[in-house]
Every structure is written in structure tokens, then in C-alpha cells.
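hey so i finally got around to running the thing on that chain from the lab meeting. sorry it took forever, my laptop kept dying and i had to restart like 3 times. anyway pasting the input first so we r on the same page abt which one it is
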Amino acid sequence: MAWMLGTIASFATMAVAGRTVSEELDTFEIMTYRSFVGIAIVVAVGLATQKLGQISTRNLHLHFARNLFHFAGQNLWFFAIATAPLAQVVSIEFTSPLWVILLAALFLGERFTAVKMVTALMGFLGVLVVSRPDLANLDPGLTAAAAAAIGFALTAVFTKLLTRQATVLCILFYITTMQAVFGLICGFLDGEMAWPSTAALPFVVLIGFAGLSAHFCLTRALSLAPASIVMPMDFLRLPLLAFVGMVFYGESLDLWVVLGAGLILTGNFINLRANAK
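ok and heres what got predicted. didnt touch it at all, straight out
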């Protein structure tokens, strides 16, 4: 839970910084610069701790699949937070832990218990209460958030598989390098790559630090507990980002958001208490 709190704080920081620079950089450019900042940090830490030898070419197919799904999900997420209210984006994105509970049972051999089912249902109900989606007029930002949720769920499953065979440093190295390549390829599709302005550069660096911190904390959490226990804790990010949206962007924090967040938090409490016992 401590590592997941670090993940949540890092993602919240990245959401604010990402929305700030989205006016001058597209999502591919943001992802590219974020990845290069991450490469510099990973290599520096590896050199300082003399652990670069942990980076191996084993399981490259798992690294590739994990980073492909995450790259797609992250780009959709950056697009969503730039075009829709934060609380609604995050609530839709939070179908991801529900997918994880199902996928973990199918691919990781984790048990699908009654408690996990209750957690998933309460989380899903909380998402519906917050977002109250209009199926007749789907918002592009919220549609992107829904697709991102599936990408993040698959990312969590492949990360859990990798933690059984690779170190955190190795996983982070391939996260940054592979996604830097993906970003460069997609960023140059329109024939140019915008360079961040002096005002935007600190936020780009912050995105790089926060993104790497989020992955480090998430990978540590997944190495210590089953994915179906770890990922529902990410629901805690909803009330936090709803508050951030209200304070920084003047987005309304109505009764529906409070009620939905209450359902989500209660479901997580039930899940954590059951597994603690």
C-alpha cells in the first residue's frame, strides 16, 4: 500500500504537468521527452549503484508487449486529460483495475474470490456514479480514457509477469528506451518534432521524473503482492485528482463525485482488510 501511495502521488503530479504542456506539445512529443528524461535517470542510478549488469535481453518479447500496451494507453491518457475534466477521465480510467482482476485470474493464475468481485463491482458502480456517461453522445476524451484503461490493465499483467524474472532496474530501462523509440517514430509521423519552450521545459522534466517514479513504485508494489490486490488501490487517485481539478482548474466537485469516490474507497477497504486477515 505504501508503494501504491507513491504511485498515486506520481500520477497526480504527472497529470497536472501533462495538462500544462499539452497546449504546445502533442501526446507523442510529451511521451518522447518523458522517456529521454527517464533514460538519463535510469542510467545514472545504474552507474551510481553499479547495477547496470542487471539489464539483460531475456524476455524481450514480454518487455515489448508491456511497453507497446503502455505507450498506447499513456498517449490516450494524455489526450484525455487535455480535453476532458480530470475527475471524469480518472473515473473512466479506473475500469482498469476491474480488467486487471479478470485478466489476473486468466493469465497469472490468481484466485477470483468473492471479495475481489465485491471490490470490482463497488469500484465500477463508483465510476458510473462519478462519470454518469451519456452513451448517445460519447465524449472523445472519455472514450480515449476508456481505451487507456484497457491498455493500463494489460500493462499491469505484463509487469507482474516480468517481476517474476527481471529486476526493477531492468524493467525501467526497457520502459524508457522502448517508449523513446515508439515516441520518436510516432512523433515524426507529421514530419516534425516540436521542442518544448523555456516555460514548458521544467514541466517536461517533471513529467519524466514523475513518470519514472510512478513505474518504480508500481513495479515494487506488484513484486510484493498479487496484481488483483495492488491495482484496486489505484482507485484512491480519483478523489485526489478530483480535488486537484477543483483547486487548479475550477472544475466542479459535486455530490456525485463524492458519492462515487465513497463507493470506490469502501470497496478498496473491504479488499485490503480481507487480504490482511
